[in-house]
Amino acid sequence: MTEKPMLEDIMRQPLLLRGLASRLGDIEAFWREHLRVASRLIAFGSGDGWFAARSASSRAGEPGLLAASGLEIAGDQGPLITPADRLIAISMSGNVDRTVEAATRAVEQGAQAVSLTNSAGGRLAELGLANFSLQIDDVAPFLCGTSSFTATRTVLAAFSAFSEGQSVSAMQEQITTTADALGYVLAEVGPIAEDIAAQKAKSTPGARYLSCGRRGSAVADYGAAKIVELSATPVWSDDLEEFAHRQYWTMARGEVAVMLPTSTFVADIAKESADALRAMEVDTVAIGPASLGVDAACWQMTWRDDLNVDDATLASGALQLLAYHWADAAGFDPNRRMHLKNDTTRFKTSRLLTRRSLHAVAGDPATAV
User: Looking at domain 181-329, what is its CATH homologous superfamily?
Assistant: First the structure.
């Protein structure tokens, strides 16, 4: 096993994206057989699956992909499902409780669904769902999700693009161009992420991840979740504007604000916010394409604008590296995350919350999965 499996998992993503580009014929064939006739594609999941679905969803009113959480579907609080819809259940193992329950409910209601996993389908396969597997080899067990997240949202984006009439060749070009750009970004932002972590990870009382819009907020949520999984730093995510009306009032001096602007207007608000937060001794990090740079930020992670590049993928890669180096600088091991398994009560409780079928072994770090 490599000494730094999470870092290896992050850095191999450009290669994995090129692999998905070479499989687009299979992805398109799966879409054509199971999803082509849909009036709407509704993707749902929990955790990273939910973040991926939201970050790849279409804008309101556009054809393509609608996102929901597993709980929304299972609890009958999501979109009203019709026989003309096609659902995509997202779970890397195929075993996450709420996602399985949501798929079960959808099938019982007569909906047609498929699964998107990195396995043979698990419990989702037992429901008879056609399964598309990412086929990503694990670098090590119990890693924080990085390459699987990027691959999931890439496949979802391909399904959405095909529904919108985009060709396989056009999608191949976009994925390949994004892979090249991601390789550049990972190389360039690594030292910046290390510098941020070295200066702030041990001293900051908390971090806020702020963006705007369905996709941007999903990526911010994902970035915050990675810090939560890897370190003990208190982290929150929010809308960039609404943060000022609620979370800000309990913000401590010396926190870090990570901003992901999604348009020129949002970038202008981010600049004003970064300026204003200096009075609270808050250091800011801005992540996004160069045209959405935030000059007032203490650190910027930017890349060249390209309409054929998926900026959310690049932002996710930058956030992954920031989380990795943050955990390392804070004194945690992001490659093994034993601080989670060694807290056996907390770990067992997590299984009771989300994977009840695994709780029998969750008290034993050697056997918990």
Answer: Glucose-6-phosphate isomerase like protein; domain 1 (3.40.50.10490)
